[in-house]
Amino acid sequence: MSHFTIHPIGVIHTPYKQKQELPIQGRFETEVVSYLEVKKIYQEGLLDLKDFSHAYLLFYFHQSKKVTMVGTPYLESIPHGIFAIRSPHRPNHIGLSLIKIKEIKENKVFFIGADMFDGTPLLDIKPYVPYFDHTENATAGWLEKHFKNGNIPTGISHK
Amino acid sequence: MSHFTIHPIGVIHTPYKQKQELPIQGRFETEVVSYLEVKKIYQEGLLDLKDFSHAYLLFYFHQSKKVTMVGTPYLESIPHGIFAIRSPHRPNHIGLSLIKIKEIKENKVFFIGADMFDGTPLLDIKPYVPYFDHTENATAGWLEKHFKNGNIPTGISHK
User: Fold this and answer.
1) ipTM of the complex
2) How many Cβ atoms from other residues are within 10 Å of residue B26's Cβ?
3) Do A7 and B92 touch (CB under 8 A)?
């Protein structure tokens, strides 16, 4: 088990074509509707996903060409470990975003919350289950100070 | 971009060696401490992860040898789409679990919430950031009826 081969199950279409257009986190972009399209052979797998309000998308950071062990994220001036940040420049280049499902039509899922480039290869969709995934009193390490007292840092949305 | 190669960044050690031992969801096993071990070359990537209470583990379902488009999960008698359940028999065989971090020592992370087999290949660790990942009023499709009024279904923990 030295390596595994994975493949796109579809593609994610977003309004974001260049780095400076990308929001830091898509969930603050509540009016931008994006959509993903699974290959026709996977359409049956979407059955009953419409009954969930949210889902995780797993995708491939196809524009990242490097791997670093530490990175200095937006908002910070000092580096943190790659496993303590959400940078694309990580081993295996797999991204994870929580999205809000708007509508499902055939092999397309329309959603709110995109923070990835247009054309991003989709690897998986998992239903968000609050009974499993909801956490009370979680602490957010280096991010806490930036979000203190309900603050949303300037620039975390590209608007 | 027809396929991508990924590799284990380490391994997850859990008490679960056989299918009947696996909890349906690890988060209900609040006293079982498991640990993951990243390869030494990735140890630097753990810097500052200790300041987060929770993290996502991405891992490879190495014991799943099939892919199905629908599946009938535990608790249910009718099938749902693979993207509306958390079954291992999914395209790309990537698993996602939210875990609670107990302690980090060198290249080992001790945690609560394992729901995968002992020896599972680890693909990534991402910090859980409540400001990005926390969702209010999420609905859980076919799972809702089973968890109604605070119920935790019998057998969801293996205890």
Assistant:
1) 0.92
2) 25
3) yes
CATH number for the domain whose boundaries are B10-150? 2.40.30.70
Classified as helix, coil or strand, B18 is coil
pLDDT tens per residue across span B70-79: 999 888 899 9
Distance from CA of B6 to the nearest CA of A (A): 5
Cα of first residue to Cα of last residue in chain A, in angstroms, is: 44
Contact A124 B51 (CB under 8 A): no
DSSP string, A61-73: -TT-----SEE--
The pLDDT tens digits for A83-101 are 999 999 999 999 999 999 9
The CA-atom distances, in angstroms, between A133 and each of A22, B7, B82, B113, B139 are 26, 26, 18, 11, 12
User: In this structure, which CATH number among 3.30.9.10, 1.10.3860.10, 2.40.30.70, 2.30.30.40 belongs to the domain A10-130+137-150?
Assistant: 2.40.30.70
Rounded Cα distance between B112 and B15, Å, is: 12
